[in-house]
Structure formats: C-alpha cells, structure tokens
Amino acid sequence: MNKNNFAKHPPMGWNSYDYYDTTVNEAQVRSNAEYMASHLKEYGWEYVVVDIQWYAHGAGSQRAQFQYIPFSTLETDEFSRLLPDPERFPSSAGGKGFAPLAEYIHSLGLKFGIHIMRGVPRIAAHLHTPVKGTDVTADQIADPSSICGWNPDMYGVRCTPEGQAYYDSLLELYASWGVDFIKCDDICNTNLYPNNPFSGRHEIEMLSRAIRTCGRPIVLSLSPGPALIDKAWHYETHANMWRITDDFWDDWRLLKDMFHRCELWQSHVSQGCWPDCDMLPLGKLGKGFGQERTTNFTPEEQKTMMTLWCMFGSPMMIGAELTLLDEQTLALLTNHEVLHLLSPDCGARQVSLDDCSAVWVSRDFRTGSVCAALFNLADETAAVTADLREVLETAESCKARSAAPCAPIRSCEDDGGIEAPCTLRDLWTGETGKSDGCILGAELPAHGCVLWQICP
Predict the structure, then answer these.
(1) For residues 390 and 439, is the Cβ–Cβ distance under 8 A?
(2) What pLDDT sits at residue 404?
(3) How do residues 253-293 score in pLDDT, each as one tens digit?
(4) Which of 71, 192, 219, 340 is deepest in the core (most CB within 10 A)?
(5) 181, 116 contact by CB (below 8 A)
(6) For the residues 6-21, what does the mean pLDDT come to?
(7) What reaction does this catalyse (predicted)?
C-alpha cells in the first residue's frame, strides 16, 4: 500500500474539466476557489484543480474541429517543462509559473492541483531542448513509439536514469510552485495499446519516486480508466487514487454500470489508496465544449450518485461551475452526515446487486453505527428490500479504511432482538421510520435510493 499518507481522506474538491474543457483561465479558477472557500470548505472540499492544456496557446479556439489542436504552440521553459499559458494565466508571466495562483488558493485555506499528461512535450523533443540535471536533451529520453491516442502533446519517457531526472525536475518545479495535487493522464490505462494497456507502468513509478524526493506532499491521481484490477497492488503502491472508469458523464447507463465497478474494487479502498469513480457531473456543465447545460441526471440520480460515491469511499471532484450552483445541488454537496461515510474510520461493502436493485452497507468503526443504502436501478418505481440479518452480517465483514478503534456494531439487536422493528433515520431527509421486523424495505422512484442509519 501507498506509504506517503498524503491522502488520509478521499480527496474532495473541484476540477475545471466538466465545465471549461481546455479553456479555463486564471480569473475563473480564482472565482471557483473563492466560492469553495465560502460555501464548501467547512464540509471537507479543499482541492482546486486546473485540468488539461493550461500550457497550450489558443486552447479551445478550434473546438468544433479539435478538442486538442494538433501540434499547437505550447509554453515551455529551457528544461523541456511545460509552463502555464500567460495569456490565460497572467500571474504566471516572467517564469513564475503557477506559484502566484497557488499562493492565492492557499491563502483561502485551500489546496492547489494541476492536470498533466504522461511524458515529455513533443516540441521539446523536436527542438532538442535540455533535460535539467543531465547532459542529454529531450529527444534522447523521449519514446516516439509511446503516444496518447487522443492528445497530441507528448511522447512517453524512456525508463532510464535521464528519464527519471526529467520527472525529478518536473516535481522540483511543481513543488516550488506549491502544487498539492497532480492528476496524471494517459497513464492509468494506456488504452491506445489494447495488448499493453499498462505500458505507462514505469512512468507511474518515476512520478512516484519524484514525488517522494521533491520535498513536498503531493497527492498523485492516475487517469484515465478503467484501471486494471490485476494491477491493483501497483496502483496502491505508487499512487493515491486511480480511475476505475473512463470519463464519467451524466448518463444513467454509466451510473448504473458504476455499481459493478465499485463491486470489483471495494476491497481495495484504504487510507491513502482510493479507487476513483471520477468527477461528479452536477449543476452547470459543458460551456467549454460549446454548449452550457444543466446536468442530465435527474434529482434522484444525483442522490444515487452521491450516495454510492460516499458509501464506496471514492474521491469527490465536483465538475460544475461552482458559482452557478443552485440550492438543491449545494444541499447535496453539504450534507455532513452523508459525507462522513467517506471517513477512513468507515468501511463499506455491497450486500447485493442485480439488474433492478443494489444494497450497500457502511460501518463506522469508531462509533459502531451502521448505515444501509437501498438503490432502485429499475426504470420505474419499485420496492427494494433487504434482509436485516444479511445487512448486519455484511457490516461485520467490512474493514476500516484506516486503523480505527474497532467499536462493536450498534444495531437493533441491542434493543429487543433482530426480529423487533428498528428505527431507521434517513440521512438525506432526517426523517425516521421503522423496519418491518427483520426486513428493510422502501418504495423508491426510478433510479432513486434511500440511505438509512440503523438506530438501536
């Protein structure tokens, strides 16, 4: 398992991609950070992440034809490292990089993150620019046979001491800027190569080594997915989070499929090691893609997504433009009791899954409390039930994500036996009810859920 302890809790924050695509600028990042500090920070939201192509001139200007303009002008330094485009990030001018922006975000009590692509800029290889700390140039560490299938900016880096020196120089730079979080793309699953989808393995290791020696705690997030379950040990050793899906958007089919992905990865969630369900496509999305829109998820689907992500223990990155959040979406993101399920003191497991329903249980090892979530995966209103005995037996088999003290489970067994009705408190609404003896059940709308704390 990852020993760096940089992400004791699943990272929570905002990422610019779902709303801005490649076009986000400094003013927009600052305004989202200010909103987070005022409205979300007290609930655990803290990372502000600038996503892809912050270094590209003219990014988004040919969006109808290209998401990533082929061989566009990229801002680089004398050591083959990408720098922010000063037109979009004016405080970076004069070689300051992201240091001024990071300093501002830190002043708000938040943390700063950036997206990077695996590898070395192609333009640096073509121009034979130096690699800091070596006597070689970028073309000598670049592997032209290792490329990304959807972004034209980079070549892979060879597994050599000079290649490691390049990654060391990157992290030296990022640490000097005050970066707290790196999302590295085209590395978790190099899906251009179906016969070798883990071809970026050595670059994961290079990044991990560079972080360990840079002198600053920096969370490492790997994209895109789907992560390879047979490589779980490698992700857990070298990264803090890794995507278990390709890009996740506001499509019910993708959300329903996530129950299967969470089932596959549920035994690999632990403190510092967080399988990642991807961003939360809530609120306003898509402006940088050419059409601003409100999420396609229904209110019930939004609640289902939030409940599953929290029960499972996924990192939580909001994709919306924060300054346009409505009250209903803000309420979803600021429920202390639901967000507590992300705690490393908790552990969760799926109880059951079929095409029409799912049941999950979460156990708080510090307090002994148990929560159960019932999900209606059908396309119409339906009753979902679970056997309380099975729920509690599954809760007993849960493992804490951290070395939390192990309090015994508090359940209705402590108050009259399992056959007696339990008090059920809905963590989303605060309403209370009773179980039907040893049966938990609810009539749920299409794609909806209920999240109960089982009270003794």
Answers:
(1) no
(2) 64
(3) 999 999 999 999 999 999 999 999 999 999 999 999 999 99
(4) 219
(5) no
(6) 96
(7) Hydrolysis of terminal, non-reducing alpha-D-galactose residues in alpha-D-galactosides, including galactose oligosaccharides, galactomannans and galactolipids
Structure tokens at 182: 């790196």
Q: pLDDT grade, residue 449 (50/70/90)?
A: very high
Q: Which amino acid is at 438?
A: C
Give the DSSP letter of residue 130. B
CA distance 237 to 255: 28
Q: Which residues contact 66 (CB under 8 A, 6 or more apart)?
A: none
Grouping H, G, I as helix, E, B as strand and the rest as coil, residue 356 is: coil
Instruction: Report the C-alpha dihedral over residues 271, 273, 278, 283, rounded to 10 degrees.
Output: 20
% of the chain with per-residue pLDDT over 90: 90
Say whether pLDDT at 1 is over 60: no
Q: Provide the phi-psi class of 133: left if phi over 0, else alpha when psi is between -120 and 50, else beta.
A: left
- Please report where in the chains the tokens 């001018």 appear, as a residue: 93
436, β-bridge pairs: 439
Token pair listed for 185: 């793309």
Whether omega for the bond prior to residue 224 falls within 30 degrees of 0, making it cis, is yes
**379, 418 contact by CB (below 8 A):** no
CA angle 385, 244, 264 (to 5 degrees): 45
